[in-house]
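User: Integrase. Structure?
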Amino acid sequence: MGLKGTTVYGFRSTFCDWAGEAANTPRELVEMSLSHKVGSDVEQADARSDLLERRRELMGKRSDYVTSASRQVSRM
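Assistant: Predicted structure:
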């Protein structure tokens, strides 16, 4: 992207902040969207869902947010 001082972690961190604050997303869904393991070994063994549909919905919201912010910046 050619952005100096930008890191992958920065993008992930920004996503976490946005998802938790602006999109009011449960922590477990945010962590799973970032491919993080959630919970103890027992909780992970009991978890049967990958929350795929909810993750798709969240990523669609994120896409809408990023593209709308991009359009606002390009107008300035």
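The chain has one domain: 9-75. The helical segments are 8-21, 27-33, 41-46, 52-75.
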